[in-house]
Design goal:
Blueprint: E1 4-9, E2 20-23, E3 35-40, E4 43-53, E5 68-69, H1 78-90, H2 95-100, E6 119-122, H3 126-135, H4 140-150, E7 154-155, H5 161-169, E8 173-176, H6 200-213, E9 218-224, H7 230-243, E10 247-251, H8 259-269, E11 273-276, H9 282-293, E12 299-302, E13 314-320, H10 337-348, E14 351-356, H11 361-365, E15 378-382, E16 393-398, H12 399-404, H13 413-424, E17 428-432, E18 441-444, E19 461-463, E20 468-470, E21 477-478, E22 492-495, H14 499-509, E23 515-518, H15 528-537, E24 543-546, E25 559-564, H16 578-590, E26 601-606, H17 612-618, H18 622-636, E27 642-651, H19 654-675, E28 681-694, E29 697-707, H20 712-724, E30 731-736
Parallel strand pairs: 9-14, 9-15, 10-12, 10-13, 11-12, 13-14, 16-26, 17-24, 17-25, 23-24, 25-26
Antiparallel strand pairs: 1-2, 1-4, 3-4, 3-5, 6-7, 6-8, 18-22, 19-20, 20-21, 27-29, 27-30, 28-29
The structure holds adenosine-5'-diphosphate (ADP) and zinc ion (2 copies).
Adenosine-5'-diphosphate (ADP) binds near residues 553 and 555.
């Protein structure tokens, strides 16, 4: 029996990012992955047992003992323990931060919800119970417990453990584990559905993937146009995995936005399916986690963090809509779920499937010839829509022409006419605009003054429903000015449209329309997404207005028209991926039309109709887009051909923030020279961040652009060390190829 345990203490601090050795008491059984309590300093802390040993180099009298196990079974399985160690190195995070991702929050910090799992109930009643009480007059603690249980079952965690044990032994109380689990809304009322017959391309895809599953795994990019039936391919593959006694994970960008995917998987897999994501209540999440851990649920559907689901013997990992930015965490540990999925798939000999109609440029590049085998994805394509349904016809409308003809509305004549026709025919429409609120900036016509947030370097957005200006970065709310604060004029005007304005215009121009809106503002409440989509799905609403929330995998058969109200919004962002994002958004949202019997039409409104991103999205030509975009990235030296590493400095004191960035610029420059890495650096510069202030904090950035072949690990480690050593009052965060460069 091992006498020593190496423990990671559950405290996040650089200085504690190492194992501490404890003695395992005689009467305790310790296993790796277990959550235990240990004496630490003058306090009791939780920790993870990472390994055990028989010998120890430290003098035994200096060691303290483990106190107790929080749960008997290991909470972190060996493969996840290894994954955490890999993340620790790959993402430069503390080991404990990686471990924390692997179990539901309420299992830690003594908040273990034992009460949901085990209840105590009286095993005796009537005379037998009275007799028992009489016989046990001398055991007041036990009697008190009996009295409490007379009022109904009680979670064991709330009862005195010794008294409970005695009562169970005597047969007066029994423990039951048949608790009613909290079923997430997404899984309620799902009906079991039957398999459709596969289309030839789907069948070929399933055959290729199952062959890989049966021969040690593989890594694939499933590139299927919108409506080509990718989900059905996942389902058949997972079915085979289950037959082979293996398990599966399906990652989706956001559960709330993909209720149909959840419903489909649940429809096919019933109680075998579990969902894991952040919008679940704490109790729901804990219950699902335990169902997975116990092997009862074998198919896990979830957002990013579901990649850490405690499944054993994984056969399939699917990352649906792999191009979505939500797979990359923007908090430490800054992991990329696609990369973790890759790692986990290799560990388990599983099949990894990245699926998308619009793969990210970086992912697609890995499916092209010339990539080293260990980094390579095998490309599988679905080029046809299910049942030979046509792709919707896409029309580009030049908004400059509308303006010249005197149309000041946000709807072009074409879009308005198509919307009229769509409604008259009893079909449904989706109107997409990637901006929430009503008007995006408020400005004085006399002097040009624009209302900005006091705390952030951004304009305030007008929200009509509350008649207020809101900052989308810090949430500050203010009343709209009646007079210009700068020149006093009364000519205050509202410019730019958001979702509220579009909804209002639909109401004004089409009194018979029944629009619903889906954006951050209408979906703050739990399950609000599902309710909005339900209203649209049932036909109660016939126009769905929304932000990118409506661009993802929605599948409504009656949608005949999709309108992209302002295609340029995402095009003009100061980010090298703005064209890619625009292409993805237009292609995805256009793909929502004409998915069943009703043929679809798409109208794209733009001020830049000749832009290749818009043209190629309208043509739904991914390959041409990729060729064009990757040539641009290569020429302009942007990722995936290079790596962007950036430290963002922020703080209340503008001078201190600037000084920190400047000092690190010099240090990093010297480091590059010393190590010879300078030759691999394309650009090194400290400058104000594109958004100079957020929440009253000033922002600077140190940006380093490197060739891909550079010794990244060393440079990143150096930058992380610099960020960790930022001066008092300055927050510094290292980001590698971040989603946003603002
Ligand atoms: P994608 O994710 O590729 O856009 P989906 O997986 O959403 O496509 O499938 C589009 C629609 O086609 C869904 O309603 C799905 O149920 C249906 N579908 C998929 N495969 C088949 C098939 N073989 N026969 C009939 N309908 C199918
Ligand atoms: Zn003015
Ligand atoms: Zn603000």
């Amino acid at each position: 029996m091992s006498r020593y345990a190496q423990v990671i203490v559950d405290l996040s601090a650089e200085a504690l990012d190492r194992v501490f050795t404890y003695v395992v008491p005689e009467d305790m059984e310790a296993v790796p992955g277990q959550l235990v309590t240990v004496p630490f300093g003058s306090r009791v802390r939780e920790g993870f047992v990472v390994s055990l040993s028989d010998a120890c180099e430290l003098p035994p009298e200096k060691l303290k003992p483990l106190l107790k196990t929080v749960r008997a079974e290991p909470v972190v399985l060996p493969d996840l323990m290894a994954l955490a160690e890999w993340m620790h190195i790959r993402y430069l995070c503390n080991l404990v931060d990686a471990l924390r991702l692997m179990l539901p929050a309420q299992m830690r910090g003594g908040r273990v919800r034992e009460k949901t799992s085990r209840r105590a109930r009286l095993a005796l009643s009537g005379e037998a119970l009275e007799a028992f009480i009489e016989e046990n007059r001398r055991a007041p603690k036990q009697l008190e417990l009996i009295e409490r249980l007379r009022g109904g079952d009680i979670q064991t965690a709330q009862l005195d453990a010794a008294a409970l044990r005695a009562l169970v032994k005597k047969g007066a109380v029994e423990i039951c584990e048949d608790e009613a689990r909290r079923t997430p809304l997404a899984l309620r009322d799902a009906t079991r559905t039957v398999d459709p017959e596969l289309m030839p391309e789907q069948r070929a895809a399933v055959e290729r993937l199952t062959a890989a599953l049966e021969s040690g795994g593989g890594r694939f990019l499933l590139h299927g146009i919108t409506g080509s039936g990718k989900t059905e391919v996942y389902i058949r593959l997972i079915r085979r995995a289950l037959e082979l006694g293996r398990t599966a994970i399906v990652l989706v960008p956001e559960i709330a936005l993909t209720p149909q995917m959840v419903a489909w998987l649940h429809g096919r897999f019933g109680g075998d399916a579990a969902v894991l994501h952040s919008a679940l209540s704490a109790g729901e999440r804990f219950d699902e986690w335990r169902r997975i851990r116990s092997g009862e649920a074998r198919v896990v559907i979830g957002a990013r963090s579901a990649i850490f689901a405690p499944l054993q013997n994984i056969g399939v990992i699917v990352v649906d809509e792999e191009h979505e930015t939500t797979y990359q965490s923007d908090r430490r540990p800054r992991y990329d779920a696609r990369e973790v999925a890759w790692k986990r798939a290799v560990q388990h000999g599983a099949v990894l499937v990245l699926g998308s109609a619009t793969p990210s440029v970086a992912t697609y590049m890995r499916a092209m010839p010339g990539v080293r085998p260990e980094n390579r994805l095998e490309l599988i394509e679905l080029r046809q829509r299910v049942k030979g349904r046509p792709m919707p016809g896409v029309e580009i409308v030049d908004m400059r022409g509308e303006f010249e003809r005197g149309n000041r509305s946000i709807f072009s004549a074409r879009l308005a006419a198509e919307l009229r026709k769509c409604l008259d025919e009893g079909h449904q429409a989706m109107l997409f605009i990637n901006r929430r609120g009503h008007s995006t900036f408020v400005s004085c016509r006399a002097c040009g003054y624009v209302v900005h947030c006091d705390h952030c370097d951004v304009t305030m957005t007008y929200h009509q429903t509350e008649n207020a200006l809101r900052c989308h970065y810090c949430g500050k709310v203010m009343a709209p000015p009646k007079q210009c604060p700068q020149c006093g004029s009364g000519y205050i005007k509202y410019f730019g449209a958001g979702t509220q304005k579009v909804q209002e215009e639909v109401r004004r121009l089409f009194p018979d329309a029944r629009p619903v809106r889906m954006d951050v503002d209408t979906t703050r409440q739990k399950d609000a997404h599902a309710r909005i989509l339900q209203r649209f799905g049932s036909g109660e609403a016939n126009v769905l207005v929304g932000t990118q929330m409506i661009a993802k995998g929605l599948d409504f058969p009656n949608v005949a028209l999709v309108g992209v109200v302002a295609a340029d919004l995402s095009l003009n962002l100061p980010d090298y991926r703005s064209v890619e994002r625009t292409f993805q958004l237009i292609t995805q949202v256009a793909g929502r039309a004409g998915r069943a019997e009703v043929p679809g039409r798409v109208i794209v409104q733009t001020y830049d109709p000749d832009h290749y991103g818009i043209q190629l999205a309208a043509a739904q030509d991914y390959r041409a887009f990729y060729t064009r975009e990757s040539a641009y990235r290569r020429a302009a030296m942007y990722p995936p051909f290079t790596v962007i590493a950036r430290i963002v400095y922020s703080g209340k004191d503008a001078d201190a923030v600037k000084a920190a960035a400047k000092a690190d610029e010099a240090r990093l420059g010297a480091f590059l020279d010393e190590t010879g890495a300078r030759a691999d650096a394309i650009q090194l510069a400290a400058a104000e961040a594109p958004i100079r202030q957020i929440r009253g904090e000033y922002r600077w950035q140190l940006l380093l652009k490197l060739y891909f072949k550079a010794d990244l690990d060393t440079v990143e480690a150096r930058m992380q060390a610099m960020a960790d050593a930022a001066p008092e009052g300055v927050q510094a965060d290292l980001e590698i190829n971040p989603n946003n460069l603002f």
